[in-house]
Design goal:
This protein is mostly helical. It has one domain: Amino acid/polyamine transporter I (Up-down Bundle). It has 15 helices and no strands. α3 packs antiparallel against α11.
Amino acid sequence: MSDPRSTDPGPSETPSPVASTMRAGTRSTLVGAMFLMATSAIGPGFITQTTSFTVQLGVAFSFAILVSILVDIALQLNVWRVIGVSGRRAQELGNLVLPGLGWVMAALLGIGGLVFNVGNVSGAGLGLDALLGLDPRIGGALSALVAIGIFVSRRAGVAMDRIVVVLGLVMIVLTLYVAIVSQPPVGRALVNAVLPEQVSILAITTLIGGTIGGYIVYAGAHRLLDSGVTGEENIRAITRGSVTGIIITGVMRVVLFLAILGVVSTGAQLDPASQAASAFQAAAGQVGLRVFGVVLWAAAITSVIGASYTTVTFVTKSTVSQRTRTWLVVGFIAVTTLVYVLIGTAPSTLLVFAGAFNGILLPVGIGVLLFVGWFRRDLLGGYRYPRWLLLIGSAAWLLTLYLAVNSVRPAIALFS
């Protein structure tokens, strides 16, 4: 017989409306964080990299995609768990591990994010050019206004979560359509995923850097912090979100790979100036070109949102008011858009240096978080971190060192 004084609901009782609302809110936030991370990764560079390697490697590129997804999961599992359980942003943990280190991380990310966001705005302009024939600079400026409108809206957090989810699904569905129309050799691609005809270490490391490099790996985790989904009690949700975010990115990578593969496997020659656009057009004619415009615009605008939001969370303290952060985001978007409108795109030299900053940040940032997992249980509220997770994260971290070396070399070469 149950104790009449107990306040715990019995097994047959209906959950309270408040509890149901909280769970629904957590699910909505989690989905938004997953898609924020995924769509931050799926930017103009993502499309260019995937197309280029598909042309170079053909069906063998499927192996690089599979390996990169596994490595990305190992790293992001650790990043999201440490940030989520500690309830602190990555740069805050960096300052607690070594005073000043967090601000070095913030500086690296800020410089890289600023330059790459110029590229994101450029991609949005090119997307509207392919879709509507609009001048890319006008299209980039209009797209920036859309992004600013999201952040200054009354419920900016909800608006951001919803827009990245909707546009993420739009990108996947439209690219899947082109993949079906192009009729790729799916069987050969599946075989090469486990028994590749050739292995490209460059492709694997490039995909890892493009998926979780720079600000991307922190985007969803910082979004969860701002929404209050933190602490040991939310580990299951944090883990599910971190893995699903990578899987969403992987799904988009696979369908884009198959869409391009179906075209190049027929021997078609793609326009070197815009390989992805010409592949979509070769697969589905003018409809394909318009689909490419939508996909590129959606990829670019969601990356503008992700880069702007995450960069500001990195360069401000958590005590800064939401209003101040909003206007900093607006200013960040405005500055990068102005640079694009004035010069057309980020100079290649700056892009090389931004890539170097992002490449350095990856092992530094992940190294800090792994250090917290290994040695700073006090920052995790006494949580006993799984050793198996730290081991696979540390093994994957070694690859980020290789990435760092390869990202710095082009920058050094500019002065040699």
